[in-house]
Design a protein that fits this description.
The protein is built from 10 helices and 12 strands. The protein is α+β, with helices and mostly antiparallel strands. The protein has a single domain (about 70-320), classed as Aminopeptidase. The protein has a 6-stranded mixed β-sheet, sandwiched between helices. A two-stranded antiparallel sheet has the order 4-5. It has a two-stranded antiparallel ribbon with strand order 7-8. α5 crosses α6 and α5 packs antiparallel against α8 (about 245-255). The longest helix is centred in the N-terminal third of the chain and has 22 residues, at about 50-70.
Length: about 325
């Protein structure tokens, strides 16, 4: 039995005095509080400087791409095909001359082409008067690699059209492009180049012979055939069955050409072609009414241009 006197109780059981049964917890230091770990990480609502920079970069690139594709300026390009020549040089006449302008504007896209007769009698800077297809030949003879620029200067002088870029393709290169595509399917509304009206499949060799055909035809027919072939090639490229061949076509194409058009120009040209489609390409030639046949003192058959009519046509095609 415990003593009744508190003093005696304290003396007998000193550990019971002022000793709490449940000790108080130590004070909590809030600077050592750590967030409780869970299965989902705690995310801050603030954006880091790196994320902000990334978003700004994406927005800038998106805006540039939007402006580039939807508000582009027109692009002018000279397409010239040169005759067979020895490997390693381009000393040949430009028997195919096409002025082209591309505008992929989504509201009013257009692709316009104008074929120039190779026998058109023009003034060639530094040479005098001669056929237009000789400008390339004589320039290459004097300075290899200068042929396209000489032809660009000749066009600017005579037609009043400034063209900054050119694309030169060898005829044998054209043949390889068609072969890489697996041939080209072409539909003729009337007999042309020895083929009856209807659908035809042409290999590279036959496609080249088609655009160069001279049987019962003159240069005006050849220009029409060249543009007909270009539209057929574009239509074939858009055929999904041909898409597996596109890498080989691109390889053959860039191996067959040389150009001064920068890389950033090509998407713009492709966008214009895709927006107008094969049937939307505006193809023109300098017609017979704008050129008069003439024989020079040396016996060469040439075409004397009617410049007022030609300038009116070029203004309509390239002036806006």
């Amino acid at each position: 039995m415990y003593p009744q006197d508190p003093s005696q109780q304290s003396a007998q059981y000193p550990e019971r005095i002022n000793t709490p049964r449940y000790p108080s917890p130590a004070p909590v230091r809030r600077d050592r509080i750590r967030p409780r770990k869970s299965g989902r990480p705690v995310r801050s609502s603030r954006l880091s400087s790196g994320r902000i920079l990334l978003l700004l970069s994406l927005a800038a690139f998106g805006f540039i791409g939007f402006v580039y594709l939807f508000f582009p300026l027109r692009t002018r390009l000279l397409i010239l095909g040169i005759d067979y020549t020895d490997p390693g040089n381009a000393l040949a006449r430009s028997d195919t001359i096409i002025l082209a302008t591309f505008n992929p504007n989504p509201v009013r896209p257009y692709v316009r082409m104008l074929s120039i007769p190779r026998d058109l009698w023009v003034s060639i800077p530094g040479l005098g008067e001669n056929r237009i297809n000789t400008a390339h030949y004589y320039a290459e003879g004097n300075l290899p690699g200068s042929g396209p620029q000489a032809l660009l200067q000749t066009i600017a002088l005579n037609f009043g059209v400034e063209i900054p870029y050119y694309l030169r393709i060898r005829f044998e290169g054209f043949r390889e492009v068609v072969n890489a595509l697996g041939g080209v399917n072409i539909e003729l509304a009337e007999p042309t180049a020895g083929y009856p009206a209807g659908k035809h499949h042409l290999t590279g060799r036959k496609a080249l012979a088609f655009v160069r055909n001279r049987t019962d035809a003159d240069d005006f027919f050849r220009m029409e055939n060249s543009q007909l072939m270009m539209r057929a090639l574009f239509k074939n490229i858009l055929n999904p069955l041909k898409w597996p061949r596109l890498p080989a076509v691109a390889k053959a194409f860039f191996a067959a050409i040389d150009t001064n058009a920068p890389v950033w120009i090509w998407p713009r040209l492709a966008a214009a072609l895709l927006r107008v489609g094969p049937g939307g390409i505006q193809s023109h030639i300098i017609p017979r009414q704008m050129a008069t046949p003439f024989t020079t003192d040396q016996g060469a058959a040439v075409l004397i241009p009617d410049w007022p009519l030609i300038h009116l046509l070029t203004q309509q095609l390239f002036g806006n």
